[in-house]
Amino acid sequence: MNLILLSIIKKEFHHILRDPQTLTIIIFMPVMMLFLFGYAITLEMKQIETAIIDEAKSNESRAFIEQLMATDFFRITSADVKSNQIETIFKERKARCALIIPYDFSSALQRNKKVKIQLLVDASDPNAANFINNYVNQLNLKFNLKNNADVFIPFSFEPVMLYNPDLKSYYFFVPGLIAVILLLISALLTSIAIVREKERGTMEQILVSPVSPIQIIIGKTLPYTALGFLDSIIILLFGCLWFGVPLNGPVLLLGFSLILYIITGLSFGLLVSTISKTQQVAMLAALLATILPTIMLSGFIFPVASMPLIFQYLSLIVPATHFLEIIRGIMLKGIGLKELYIQLGYLFILTAFLIALSIKKFSRNLEG
Amino acid sequence: METVKIKNNSHSVIVEALTKKFGGFTAVNNISFRVSGGEIFGFLGANGAGKTTAIRMLCGLLMPTSGQATVAGFDVYTEYEKIKMNIGYMSQKFSLYEDLTVRENIEFYGGVYGLSRKEIREKTDYLMDYLKLWDHADDLTKSLPLGWKQRMALSTALLHDPDIIFLDEPTSGVDPVSRRNFWLLIYELAEQGKTIFVTTHFMDEAEYCHRLSIMRDGLIVELDKPGVLKKKYNAENMQDVFMKIVRGGKGQD
Ligand SMILES: Nc1ncnc2c1ncn2[C@@H]1O[C@H](COP(=O)(O)OP(=O)(O)OP(=O)(O)O)[C@@H](O)[C@H]1O
Ligand SMILES: [Mg+2]
Questions:
Q1: For the whole model, what pTM was predicted?
Q2: Is residue A18 helix, strand or coil?
Q3: Average pLDDT value for residue range A162-183
Q4: pLDDT tens-digit profile of B69-120?
């Protein structure tokens, strides 16, 4: 019994170590995806294309503009624009926002009058528009404070961002990426490993032996569980050391949740393999079954709470939703079992259901 | 070669009115036959005649649509797990792992059939001697010539010492010398009392079988000793017999 399992596991490792495709998926894909998402698809806003309409053309206005340019946030693409050109600039997408500094900017500042700077934002991307608006307000406040400190401000808002004080999207993304990458990789690897044997005809040879389906499934998935775990460690290391994401909570609980979640991915892979005849189909199906719901419904990008109600319910059956809450909770908030047992329970039930379904679907012969 | 005696007369395989349908298409249509222990039983038929489908049903890989069959005394519907311990099977596709070495393949299949480490080691040594593969024990299987691969596949199918062996076109694509070597192996196995169930496209190989069944469009149209068939069709060799039977096929009246 044990020797049978061992033989299958050993064989699987031989395949993995000799197959460049699998090795690439295991080693390079997570790192590549992490950097891709981490840098390119970041929600952090930087280098916003900005047009400046400086009607004042004074020392103060130039100082203000200089201060804007000093930040990483704005990149001035059109300086010295006439106010009637703004629409063209927005339409040609040369800028996403425009600042109009009024002609009385300097005199108003000197007379301690409230200075009004008009900000025009291209709101076709409302999130971005909102973000720009907030940022400029903050900047404005700073400038005001510096330039007329004697102005009495009765109170001011000072937003304090908890858990992610610098509003770094890495913090948000790296745990999310672990959720996406792990699920994808474990589903992809298992389904490919099984469908490849179907394609090559070796599955037929195994099915004709007295090995039980459970042994085949365990023997096939155990190696990939180990590799998936290795992958999660790689991603975590990169996340913590390169992107500086904290790991505040209990590591042991994190490890346990990771394994549970990898098993979820493997069951997806098993299910995919039962409906796929070729490796290409398996790959596509694994991608669709994991990436789409995980990215769209789990809160990876869009917060679950702001989804339409029906999607909020739907997100409950997406394993990544719960895993995301767990991993973000552990890493960023430093919370543990006491706060997360409900999410862990959900994840556990979903995983158990998927395993049961995939084992049931896994055929002991060539039919189905 | 035709002088080899059938060693044992208990029936290894009993098939009654076995039928397999894929949807509306009948791949195997109501076939019946018995194979005795130690017999070399040949399955002939053009492409798509239903040979592989019939073998797969007997190996527990496909559920029959209707009819009865027992293999080694076990029912194919209910006792396929027991059947598996008693049969060796070489599928039509070469099904050893090309990316494993010769030794690793043997170890894997030995393990899968529940052999102990010691047994696996002994079997490996024995097979390496027997197949004269010592020089290539640690080469990847894909680097071997096809003839060797097929003999290796047969040997791994025999690791658990089964009584009944199903060989689905074991010699297709193999050169004549290797084919002859392969058939020497088959004869040796029959001598040991093992039942051989073999499909082939080669008519010279058909002559080596104790008995032959010829399939056409899912039906068994002839079943007898090669000598009897030749006499019946007044033919020089099996090639002629086969041509005469196949000409009776669909749309060739
Ligand atoms: N899983 C399946 N689903 C549908 N049809 C099938 C299936 N397997 C086989 N068939 C069809 O059944 C018929 C018999 O196929 P089978 O493989 O048994 O023939 P064969 O005699 O082994 O042919 P060959 O000499 O080419 O190996 C063929 O027409 C084939 O297309
Ligand atoms: Mg066939």
A1: 0.76
A2: helix
A3: 71
A4: 999 999 999 998 899 999 999 998 888 999 999 999 999 999 999 899 999 9
Task: Extract the tokens encoding B62.
Answer: 């496909």
The CATH fold of domain A48-147? abc type-2 transporter like fold (3.40.1710)
Dist. CA B53 → ligand 1 center (Å): 6
Residue from A18, A203, A204, A220 to probe the interface with B (highest B Cβ count within 10 Å): A204
- Is the CB of residue A17 less than 8 Å away from at least one CB of chain B? no
DSSP A267: H
Residue corresponding to tokens 């080469």: B139
Q: What is the pLDDT of residues A243-287, one digit of tens each?
A: 888 888 899 999 999 999 999 999 989 999 988 889 899 989 988
- Which of B61, B96, B124, B152 should one mutate to test binding to chain A, selecting the residue with the greatest count of A CBs within 10 A? B61
Domains in chain B: how many in total? 1
> In this structure, is residue B9 part of a structural domain?
no
* Closest C-alpha residue for ligand 1 atom 11: B27
Measured CA to CA, the distance from residue A315 to residue A317 in angstroms comes to 5
ipTM: 0.87
Beta carbons of B99 and A207 less than 8 Å apart: no
Tokens of A358: 């995939």
Would the CB atoms of A208 and B60 count as touching at under 8 Å?
A: yes
List the domain boundaries for chain A: 3-41+168-367, 48-147
For chain A, what's the residue count?
Answer: 368
In contact, B160 and B83? CB cutoff 8 Å: no
Q: How many contacts does A have with B, using Cβ atoms within 8 A?
A: 85
Residues touching ligand 1 (Cβ under 6 Å) are B 22, 25, 27, 45, 47-53, 92
Residue B205 contacts residue B174 (beta carbons within 8 Å) = no
Is B127 contained in some domain? Answer: yes
Q: Which atom of ligand 1 is nearest to the CA of B92?
A: 27
Å from B49 to nearest chain A CA? 19
Q: What is the pLDDT of residue B252?
A: 38
The answer to whether residue B2 sits within a structural domain is no
Token pair in block for residue B184: 């020497």
Compute the distance from residue B115 Cα to the ligand 2 centre, in Å.
Answer: 30
Q: Residue B45 is part of a domain; what is its CATH number?
A: 3.40.50.300
pLDDT, tens digit, 9 for 90 and up, residues A324-352: 999 989 988 888 888 889 999 999 999 99
Ligand 1: residue of B26, B51, B53, B169 to mutate (most ligand atoms within 8 A of CB) is: B53
The helices-and-strands tally (H runs, E runs) of chain A is: 14, 4
Q: Name the residue range of residue B152's domain.
A: 38-50+87-246
Arithmetic mean of pLDDT, A183-199? 89
Tell me which residue has tokens 């949807």: B23
Give the integer Cα–Cα distance in Å for B207 and B136.
Answer: 33
Whether residues B112 and A10 touch (CB distance < 8 A) is answered with no
Q: Are strands B195-199 and B164-168 parallel, antiparallel or unpaired?
A: parallel
Rg of chain A over CA atoms, in angstroms? 27
In this structure, the residue with its CA closest to atom 8 of ligand 1 is: B53
Residues B9-44: tens digit of each pLDDT: 478 899 999 999 999 999 999 999 999 999 999 999
Surrounding ion ligand 2 within 5 Å at CB are B 51-52, 92
